[in-house]
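To fix ideas, we reproduce below one chain and its tokenised fold.
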Amino acid sequence: MTKIQILGTGCAKCNKLAENAKQAAEALGLDYEMEKVTDLNQIMSFGVMTTPGLVVDGKVLVVGKVPSPADIEKMIG
């Protein structure tokens, strides 16, 4: 199972990133689990200082921007 984590405090960009990541995972037919990480200490433990962040299986893929579902598919596909 693929673990997708959205790092952010719940801002509009964080929510959009979660939506785009969900669309990408479903388009790829992934068996995934999505978690929203809102605790700042936990976010910083990934080395992320600018939200939103996208982490897939423990690897930080995106920091501070909201890629399109198609771009996320390329990253995790």
Remarks:
- The chain has one domain: 2-76.
- The two ends are 13 Å apart (CA to CA).
- The chain has a mean pLDDT of 96.
- Residues 2-76 form a domain with the Glutaredoxin fold (CATH 3.40.30.10).
